[in-house]
Fold each of these.
Amino acid sequence: MPMNVRPVLALNERINHIRMTTARIVNNEILPFERLLAGRAEPGEGPTAAEARARVRAEVVEAGLWAPHLPPEYGGAGLTFLEHAYMNEILAYSGIAARLFGVVAPNSGNQQILLRYGTEAQKQRWLVPLTEGRLESGFSMTEPESAGSDPRAIRTTARRDGDFWVINGHKWFTSNGKRADFLIVMCRTEDPTGPAERNGKMTQMIVPTNTPGLKIVRGIEVWGQDSDHCEIRYDDVRVPVENQLGTVGSGHEAAQHRLGAGRVYHCMNSIGHMWRAFDLMVERATMREVHGGLLETKQFVQGFIADSYIDIQAARLMTIACAEKMDGGGDARTDISAIKVFVPACFERVVDRAIQVWGAAGVSGDLPLWAMAQGARTLRLADGPDEVHRILIAKNVLGQVHGGENWSFD
Ligand SMILES: Cc1cc2nc3c(=O)[nH]c(=O)nc-3n(C[C@H](O)[C@H](O)[C@H](O)COP(=O)(O)OP(=O)(O)OC[C@H]3O[C@@H](n4cnc5c(N)ncnc54)[C@H](O)[C@@H]3O)c2cc1C
């Protein structure tokens, strides 16, 4: 059955139009051809996966929704933050739709960094081809020898040598590493000849993957499968100073900016995935007969339906409240941390119930639930693990209380 999307009364006409158009493309052009589009169909007559993807992409461009997170002058659809957030919950009903709409991680986060911190020359050289699908990219921050949950612990250095930065370090879990044409690498800058304040500051560098000294050691197995999350060594990798992104020392702020909006988008994506898992679970409950009755007549299963409904609505409304606060220019740091903990936990529960109701089929390749279960679990540690966000929430609340004010839920 198709995803059932209706206009939301509280939303303006444009956001409703974007949601309905996205739903039309997902329902008509993506869901019936998901295996083909994912490259998992048996070879036979009819279009190839590449041809099918090109057809959907043309439809998305025609609808004015390609690269929703970018302005038109750099090849995007120019959606506002809220429009994009509301679009994501529809888009993510299919796990492969993001790529077909030109808004796939890690490229999308890198595009936003390039947009905000890049010079015009960097935008033309890296951002435009990335948006047009002529280049691929990765974001290289996490290191095996230091805690990824503490960005101050980064050890990779960029030492200034004349008109070059020379990068040395060891990273891992750089997603898209093998496909990437360039990486945005988080470094600790050292400039013995420059002003003292340049030393020890975090700065991001654009590093083409064919630069001598950059070695992809391996794609790390994730959940027992080969992956494109790569371990990478940087040994005396020289990049011209023009490849520095933003000012020296802006790296941490740039990463926070990338992650802040990104967390809302990720949560809206998780809601789209949950919506699909929920529909699949309810569908199975209305069809499968066990022990003399349909699953839907069993109270355990009715409980699953109710609990998943509650999880999804709570996660959705919390994320929308956070997005609206950000959009209105409010301080949403506590809300962002709260959704980053709460939504993946709901996602895990909702998918787990759907798998349970489907029995063996739930963990099979015939359904998307296995991938959702792994994705939901991974979200609890990527982009800041649960514990770090809980600590931040408590710190903000206690900071305000010690400053003389109780917390205000607004
Ligand atoms: C599939 C996948 C894709 C990824 N893609 C990328 C990518 O493209 N680029 C990139 O740079 N990174 C990427 N990462 C890495 C990810 O961002 C890090 O794994 C994450 O930031 C956590 O860092 P860490 O693994 O070093 O864990 P650590 O920092 O070592 O933390 C380990 C655990 O310690 C606990 N912990 C941490 N701090 C505290 C605390 N203060 N109090 C109590 N407990 C604490 C948490 O339970 C945490 O999970 C990816 C990871 C995965 C799994």
Amino acid sequence: MQGRQEPSAPGVFFWAEEIGRALDGYRGTIFDGMRSLFVIALAAAGCSFDPGGTLGGSETNADAAQTGASIDSGTPASFCPDDPNLLACFTFEGDTDDRSVYGNHATATGASFDTGADGQALRTDLSTEVTIPDDPSLRFPPDGMSYEAWIFPDSIPDSNRVGIVDQDGGPSIFIYAGGDVQCFAGGRRVGTGPGVVSAGAWAHVACTHSGTTTTIYVDGIPKLVDATGGAISAGTIGMSIAGNSPSGDPFEGRIDSLRAWGIARTQAQICQAAGCP
Ligand SMILES: [Ca+2]
Ligand SMILES: [Ca+2]
């Protein structure tokens, strides 16, 4: 009551009645407003969880669910942590920006974006070129590297190969005839053999090299371990996504959640990225 004149007893009753009438008047407005906000919130929640969504392509979400991929509508910031060992991190949420601390953004021609394993993915065809200019921060150290990505091949080559990620003269992942995932690192090219990835389905592929040992993972499971490698040589002309660096061997399909690390990630870490149970 500070700052107000103390009312007389009848004045108090009058004042209370006035407040009561005012509240009666506001009650409906307040409840209507709350109901409107609730409806808006429900609509927003319904929209964000709509599996049909604006991205469409429910068959790919089903495929992603089968392989354990996250199918939420975005990528958490924790996917691209401020970790100096994370050399490049692409979520492909409508762009080819590198969300690592280094910001090694890719330039893309002939690329588009489509439903991904997590949010949106990069969609590529025979005309697509996605390249990252060389930068010292993009070069792997001699004793540790990892690539990991979700891929959705539209087709599997009958012969030759298609590039997933390649640092010319440095580490790469290619898909060879019949769905054979091959990794080059530490002076050696090794492969899983055919049949580990298929057309029309999401698969998580990863390659790590420790300075001696190359491991190729598919859906978080080691498919090839080779301990006869040596020091990693890093390329110096940049990196290509969905093709050979500097050109050729284009990959047709979708690529999502691509990371390059300057360390050999552990099986547990690869498995987590692959959505292993
Ligand atoms: Ca994505
Ligand atoms: Ca090359």
